[in-house]
Amino acid sequence: MNWFSFTGTNPLSPAHYTLVATQPTCPGLPQRMCALQAQNDGSNNPQITDELKEEIANCLENKVNSTHVKLKT
Question: I want to staple 68 with a disulfide (CB 3.0 to 4.6 A). Which of 10, 37, 46, 51 is the partner?
Answer without folding.
Answer: 37
